[in-house]
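in:
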């Protein structure tokens, strides 16, 4: 999260809006918090270019994983089916949940190749209730660069790349994203829905899982995650002041280009995702020769980098470059990679 968001959040924990109360203790029904929720919901639609286009935004709890369940509950018709693209662990978790509701067609999967690319050339069944995809595969470092043109509602899990790049967001009917990557602290999940797709499943939906109930209650059907929503609002304001998604996209592209060009240039490293599907948020890469791992690990830790090991299902390394990460931080990693090359060359020279 951006430094200024940490500072403003810290201040609000001590004294929110000069109320002599902490954001952690105010009532979610207070006028000050209702204003926060309203502004956050409106700013989401503004930044995504979806204002006045029939969309509603919600801040819910339960994580993106609860949306794996809420989506079929609300959208899959009784006796109907849904279509899914299997591009990684999270997509496959969404598929598992959908199977509890009815026929779940997996239109394509890259599982056999350990999800190292985004499948292409698949057909989406026209009689499915919706098509679900995952825009960015956090673990595997792949990202969808385009989305299928479907007649049926298009649903997308954007947990790890929302607000990071310009997309025509109006092609989607439902977008969801856990706050904890590009928006705020863990605890809130953003859901953006085209209202017209709701109320058609023919299912009884428990109240807490019913998008229509949450919309009617203006995202306050029950006590919302007050602090995560407030911190998300601060991040959204930061993004707007920066110039919105087009401005952050330029910065994200600079970061991704910087790192991927080093991965491609440096003879010690190789990228693990197909080049055309590389994510600008999560860059996954490996050492050709694992015997250099101990030296590299010591070097990046000493440089102040944290969280670089890849997910156990991929191995190697994963550099997450979410919106708030400065270009300078990516440069630190690139410098360490270059330095490793120097060290290895010296070792090789000695050996020779
Ligand atoms: C793409 C994607 N979807 C879903 C999830 C699950 O999110 P949560 O932990 O909020 O349920 C994650 C978590 O990293 C993710 O990266």
């Amino acid at each position: 999260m951006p430094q200024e968001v940490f500072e403003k959040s810290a201040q609000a924990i001590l004294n929110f809006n000069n109320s002599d109360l902490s954001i952690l203790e105010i009532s979610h029904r207070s006028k000050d918090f209702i204003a926060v929720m309203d502004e956050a919901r409106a700013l989401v639609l503004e930044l995504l270019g979806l204002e006045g286009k029939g969309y509603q935004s919600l801040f819910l709890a339960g994580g993106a994983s609860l949306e794996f369940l809420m989506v079929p509950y609300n959208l899959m018709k009784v006796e109907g089916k849904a279509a899914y693209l299997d591009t990684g662990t999270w997509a496959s978790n969404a598929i598992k949940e959908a199977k509890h509701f009815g026929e779940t067609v997996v239109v394509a999967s890259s599982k056999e190749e350990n999800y190292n690319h985004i499948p292409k050339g698949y057909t989406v069944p026209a009689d499915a209730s919706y098509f679900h995809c995952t825009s960015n595969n956090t673990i595997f470092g792949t990202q969808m660069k385009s989305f299928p043109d479907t007649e049926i509602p298009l649903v997308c899990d954007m947990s790890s790349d929302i607000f990071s790049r310009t997309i025509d967001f109006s092609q989607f009917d439902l977008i969801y994203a856990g706050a904890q990557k590009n928006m705020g602290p863990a605890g809130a999940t953003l859901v953006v829905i085209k209202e017209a797709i709701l109320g058609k499943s023919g299912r009884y939906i428990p109240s807490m899982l019913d998008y229509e109930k949450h919309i009617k209650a203006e995202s306050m059907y029950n006590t919302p995650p007050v602090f995560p929503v407030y911190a998300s609002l601060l991040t959204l304001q930061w993004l707007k002041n920066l110039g919105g998604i087009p401005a952050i996209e330029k910065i994200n592209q600079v970061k991704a280009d910087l790192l991927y060009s080093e991965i491609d240039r440096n003879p010690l490293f190789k990228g693990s995702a197909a080049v055309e599907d590389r994510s600008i948020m999560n860059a996954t890469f490996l050492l050709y020769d694992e015997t250099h791992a101990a030296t590299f690990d010591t070097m990046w830790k000493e440089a102040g980098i944290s969280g670089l090991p890849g997910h156990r299902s991929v191995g190697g390394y994963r550099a997450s470059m979410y919106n708030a990460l400065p270009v300078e931080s990516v440069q630190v990693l690139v410098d360490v990679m270059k330095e490793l090359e120097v060290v290895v060359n010296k070792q090789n020279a000695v050996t020779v």
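note: Residues 63-65, 90, 134, 138, 157, 159-160, 178 surround pyridoxal-5'-phosphate (CB under 6 Å).
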